[in-house]
Amino acid sequence: MKPNAALAAAAERSLAAEWLVLVRPRVGAMVFLVACLGALLARPHAAETASMLAAALCITAVAAAASIFNQVLERETDALMERTRARPLVTGRIQPRDALLAGSALGALGTLGLALGFNLLSALLAVATLVTYVAVYTPMKRVSTLNTVVGALPGAAPPLLGYVALAGETGPWAWVLFGVLFAWQFPHFMAIAWLYREDYARAGHQMLPALPGARGVAGSQALLYGLALVPVSLLPLLAGMAHAPYAAGALVCGLAYLAASLAFALREERRTARALVLVSLAYLPLFFASILFDLASTGMWSA
Questions:
Q1: Out of 20, 94, 149, 190, which residue is the most buried by the measure of CB atoms under 10 Å away?
Q2: Residue 154 φ/ψ, nearest 5 degrees
Q3: What is the pLDDT of residues 129-146, one digit of tens each?
C-alpha cells in the first residue's frame, strides 16, 4: 500500500479499529493458539478446556500489552517507515497516555490472572517475557543487530507459558515448542526485513538486511535457522514423546521451510522473499496440526 493510501485508510478507521491495530490482532491470534497448544500438551488427558482457554487469554493479554508499549516507545521511528506510519499513535488518533493506561491494564490483568488462577511461575515468566520485549528488544533495535536474537526469546515464549500455566513447571514439550518457535522466527523475519530493508534503514533500525554491505546475510541466516529447525522439530520422536504421524508432518513441514529458505539464500529477491514469508505462515498451523493428529491417533488426547 502506498504511503498516501495507507494514511487515507487510517483516517477512515473507527476508533475501535485503531485499538485493534494497536494490539495487533493477527499476532494476538497466533499467541492465543500456541498458548492453547502448550496448555494442551501439559494436560492432554484432562478435560480442562476452560482452564486452557483462560490461560491462553491471560497470555494473549500480556502479549497485547507488549505490543502497545512497543508502539508507544517506537512512535517516532514508526513515523519514518512506510509500513508503520499509519499506526494510531503516529497519526495521533490514540494518545500515548491512553495507550500506556490500556497496556498497563492488559499486562496487569494477564499476569494477575496467571498468578491467581494458575501459578506464580507462569506469571513470573510472563513478566520476564514482557520486560524482555519492551525494555530490552525494543530499544536494542536502534543499537545492535543482536536485537533479532533477543526479540526471538519472547516471541517463542507463549507455548512455554501455556504449558507452565497448566502443569506448574516446564517440561520437554514446552522446550521443544519454544525451540521450534525460536528457530522458525529467523527465516520468517529475515525475509520480511529484506523486503522492508529500506524502511528499516530509514528508521535507523539495526536489522541485518538493512545494513550497508549486508547482501547475502539475510539469506544465510534464514538458511542456518531453517537447517536447525528440522532436527529441533524431530526431538519429540527421538525422545519417545511423539510417533510416526507427528514425525511425518514435522519432517515435511521442516523440509518445505528449508527449501524456501535455501531458495532465498541462493537468490535474495522479492519473489523468493515473498515465497519464504508465505511458507513460514503455512508452516506453523501445519506443524501444530501434526501434533494434534499424533495425539488423537495415539489416544493421548482425550476430551
A1: 190
A2: -65, -30
A3: 999 999 999 999 988 889
The rounded distance, in Å, linking the Cα atoms of 173 and 76 is 40
Cell triple for 151: 526479540
Give which of 180, 159, 169, 179 is closest to 41, Cα–Cα: 159
- Please provide the average confidence, as pLDDT, over all residues in the chain: 91
Instruction: Write down the H helix ranges in the chain.
Output: 3-12, 15-23, 25-42, 49-73, 75-78, 88-91, 96-117, 120-131, 138-140, 147-155, 157-167, 172-195, 197-203, 217-233, 235-238, 244-266, 270-297
Residues 169-184 as b/e (b if ≥16 CB within 10 A, e otherwise) read: eebebbebbbbbbbbb
Contact 77, 204 (CB under 8 A): yes
How many CB atoms within 10 Å of residue 9? Answer: 12
Mean pLDDT of 63-89: 93
- Give the integer Cα–Cα distance in Å for 84 and 174: 33
pLDDT of amino acid 46: 61
Length of the chain, please?
A: 303
Among 88, 107, 81, smallest CA distance to 18 is for 88
Q: What is the pLDDT of residue 52?
A: 93
Mean pLDDT within 173-195: 96
Cα(112)–Cα(117) distance, integer angstroms: 8
Q: What is the DSSP letter of 208?
A: G
Task: Give the pLDDT confidence of 194-227 residue by residue, as tens digits.
Answer: 999 888 888 888 887 877 777 888 999 999 999 9
Q: What domains lie within the chain, and their CATH numbers? A: 1-170 (1.10.357.140), 172-303 (1.20.120)
| CA–CA distance, 186 with 80 (Å, rounded to integer) | 24
Query: Which pLDDT belongs to residue 181?
Result: 97
Exposure of 92 in the CB half-sphere (CA atoms within 13 A): 0
